[in-house]
Amino acid sequence: MAEVARLVSFARALREAGLRPGTGAVSDFCSATALLGVEGVYWAGRVTLVSRHDDIPIYDRVFDGFFAEETPERRRPRPQLRLVVGAAADDAAGEAGEAEAPRVGRASRIELLRRKRFEQCTDAELAELASLAEDLAQSLPWRRSRRRVDAPSGVLDLRTTLRRSLRTDGEPFERRFRKRPAVPRRLVLLIDVSGSMSGTSRALLVLAHTLVRARPRTDVFCFGTRITCVTRALGVRHADNALAGVAGAVADWDGGTRIGESLKAFLDRGGHRGTARRAVVVVCSDGLDVGEPELLRQQMQRLSLLAHRIVWLNPLKADAGYEPLARGMQAALPFVDIFADGSSLTSIETIVRELSGGRGPARR
After folding, report:
1. N or C: where does the chain have the smaller number of CB atoms within 10 Å of the terminal CB?
2. How far apart are CA 179 and CA 363, in angstroms?
3. What spatial distance separates the first Cα and last Cα of the chain, rounded to whole Å?
4. CA dist., res. 189 & res. 282, Å (int)
C-alpha cells in the first residue's frame, strides 16, 4: 500500500513539473513497477509516463529528486521482457530460460484490484484504491468561469487599456486582456447508505474522501430515510477519522431507502439555491426505494432542470442479467444521463472519461 502511494506521489510530482500522465498511465506505471521491482522503476516510468521525447529531461530531473536516496543508480539497461499469452503461460513456466527475464502475465495485482468489486475489497485494498483514485479528481469535468480575470491574451480589456493610456498621452502602448478561466465543475455525490447498499457504500465514501480533499467544489450527501451532508466530515486528513465522523453524523445508516423524500429535502434545503445548479450530480444507489415512485419521478425532474448532468451508479448493474425493474429505478431512469454500475474503480474511470469527453446529453 505504501509503495503504491509513493508511486502515485511521483506521478503527481511529474504533473507539477509540466508532464501530464493520465490515470491509466499511472496505473500502468504501478503495474510495471510491481513486475520489474525497485531496480526497474526508472524504465517503468519512462515507458508509461513519458509520451514525448522532449519530456525526458524533465522526467530525469524529477526522478533524480524524488528517488535520489532509494535508487542512486537510476540508469540501467532496458529490462528484457518476454510476453506470454494464453495457454503458453503454463508451458513457459517450466522452461529453463525463464529465470533470465521477467515474464509479463495478462493482469498484474494492481490491475486486478482496479477491476475488483468494491464489496469484495478489504480495508487495505480500499486504501490502495483511494491512492490510485487521486488522479481521477483532475480528470473530472471543468467549465468556463462566468467571471473574467487578467490574462496575457484573450479579450481586450478596453476600460483598463484606456485608463493606462492616460500615462502615455492617450497612446495605448500597454494593452490589457481578460479571459474566462477554466474552473472545476461542481460535483455532488448522493450516496445511499441503506442496508441493501452496505457492501458498497463504505468503498464509495472512501473514494468520496479522496475527491473532497483533492478537488474543490465537491459536496457529499448520505441518504437512507433522510439526507445528511457529510462534506465537512470527509474533509479531515485520515480516511478512518473521516468515516468515523460520517458514521456519527448519519443517523439512518443500514436502514430503509426513501430516495424521493431524500431528494426533495436536498432540493428544498440547498440544492435549488446553488449546490446542484450546473453541477454533475452522481446518485449512488441500487434503486430499491420503499417510497412513492411518483414523488421520486417529480424530484428527479426538478433535479434534471438544475444539473449539468445526472449520473446514476447502481451496483446491481454489474450483473449481466440485471434489468431495472424496481419501481424507483424505473421512475428515475428517464431523467438520468449516464446509467452505470460503478462497482469498481475501472467502471468509475470509464464514467469519468465519458463525462470529460463531453459525450451524452448535457443540458447546459
Report:
1. C
2. 24
3. 41
4. 5
How would you classify the pairing of strands 177-179 and 155-156? antiparallel
Q: What are the grid coordinates assigned to 240, written together?
A: 478512518
For residue 217, the 8-state DSSP code is S
Answer yes or no: is pLDDT of 358 > 80.
no
Indicate the DSSP class of residue 73.
-
pLDDT of residue 280: 93
List CB contacts of 224: < 8 A, sequence separation 6 or more.
192, 193, 194, 250, 252, 253, 254, 255, 256, 257, 258, 262
Rg (CA), the chain: 24
Instruction: For residues 148 and 156, give the distance between their C-alpha atoms in angstroms, rounded to a whole number.
Output: 11
Does residue 108 have a pLDDT over 70?
no
What are the strands, taking DSSP E only, across the chain? 82-83, 103-104, 142-144, 149-151, 155-156, 177-179, 182-184, 187-192, 218-223, 227-229, 280-284, 309-313, 338-340
